[in-house]
Amino acid sequence: MNLFEKNIKLLRGHDPELARRASETCSSADIVAVAAKNGMPVPQVRSILLHSSYDPGREAQKTVSGFVPDNGRRTVVFGLGFGYHVLELLKMQSGGICVIEPSLSLFRAFLEHVDLKPFIPETRFLIGEPVPKILARNRPSDWSLLVHKPSAQISDGYFRQLERGLELTRYLESQRLRILVVNPIYGGSLPTARFCAKALENLGHEAESVECEKYSDSFFAIKDATPNKQNSETLYNSFMLMMGNVILAKAADFKPDLVLALAQAPLTRETIARLKTLNVPVAFWFVEDFRTLTYWPEVAGDYDYFFTIQKGEFFDKLARQKAKNVYYLPQACSSAVHRPLDLDGEEMRNYRADLSFMGAPYYNRIQTFPRLMDFDFKIWGEGWGPNSPLGKHLQNTGRRVSTEECVKIYNAARINLNLHSSTCHEGVNPVGDFVNPRTFEIAACSAFQLVDERRELGDLFRVGEEIVAFKDVEDLREKIRYYLEHEEERTAISARGRERVLREHTMERRMSEALIHIFSDRFAELKARVDGRRKPVDLHIEQAGADTELGRYLGRFKDVKNFSLKTVVDGIQEGEGVLSKNELLLLMLDQVVKEGA
Length: 597
Prior knowledge:
Strand content: 5-15%
CATH topology of the largest domain: Protein-Tyrosine Phosphatase, Chain A
Structural class: alpha/beta
Number of domains: 4
Number of strands: 18
Radius of gyration: 28 Å
Largest sheet: 6 strands, parallel
CATH architecture of the largest domain: Alpha-Beta Complex
Distance between the termini: 80 Å
CATH class of the largest domain: Alpha Beta
Helix content: 40-55%
Strand order of the largest sheet: 9-8-10-11-12-13
Shape: globular
């Protein structure tokens, strides 16, 4: 076993997903390891050495010599190289270190030439991760930062983006943005739209929803109004025009900093173009399977930002449609809604089952579920045939299940079955490339689930430790039997899954990530807009510092209308007693302004 294989084995126990990515990455011809004078390996990237060619260890000591770890903050290092500076930091402090490195190829070279053991388990590696994802998940306000300058030199764009993102993140923590969320008229993305708005409010922003679902009855009524295809199309276009005007009127009144539309929101190309005249970004989160909902090519190129729950093939197709700023943003849970519940006796009788499923009757589910009828199996959801072979397992007479009821179902089931939808497979889609919201919602309830294998699942959970996946129906049946008999394992896996979701997969995390992605390159524009509508006194207090003597002094003018320097001077002149230092400074400033005029 060579050094790389030993390191991968060690890394697999620490971060299995990173180990998989590193194993699948090919070595880069742009990165070579050369020997320093003392024999230590040094990476050379495009003719640039990342450490000293004489003594990398001694150089690393000098690099960190002026760095003072703050025990109350996490040490974060920009740039890995071959980690000599990281090892020196580990000698200086007992707490963990986080290393951010944009190049997965460089990380592979590191694993090929450097023993990983001294770094584990105190070092967390964030390798090749999108900047918004890092900033949304890792509380940058708590960072104590060390920049490895040679690494910053070869990855200048990435680390500049990180620095801009840090500044933006601090700004977003203290400012209240106005965000208009455009809901779909109906469908599975409607709950997501509502969770988005609530998450934005929880982040401290002002979220206003265009509740397009209020017009759903009219939408379905016009679809049934006439059998004539041409007349039906005319009615549909008229309805979409009306919905566009509703959205535009709401936007004109609200004056948002961002418009965020969800999949199936009634936005035509014309409406998007008119929204853009507000000079704010218009973003779209397509929280659906692009193969099932196929209208997206009509509008993909019109949005300023296009968020997806799929990568790979979908990214290629979006590029052909000239979609701008495409970004992978998986689904998530609403932690205030999806949570453990204490159900009463009647609720447990209604919802308790060895195996439960909640969802729609897609083809693969109709084909699979008859093979599970020998279990205590309850099926919930709309559209299932009560007279089909599955009818005796159908609950709630096949009516639509509310979000609140879903949470009770998840909590009560010993095992929740989560088979992703497919219209063309008999069972598990062998190349499933998105993860549905149910995956996160069940986990957030600290409930146990068996989910079909998905390409992206390992990026989001530790499969086998935080969630359990099955590859086909026989595997599913075996795992149902096994986990029904092993309650302690179910409970432990469910608890770890909930911890992971609350740490990384809440809607607040997703909205924070989206805002950072959108405004990283629009920070100056955003700041000018937000500051322009703030009270002048608030801006002055912020500039002075709210906790400074001057900031506290200016705080007395917070409720004064038409605040200006004259307002302050008039207040000083009307006062009595000895002038304070701040009052003297303000009077002097007023005099300077008058003389300059």
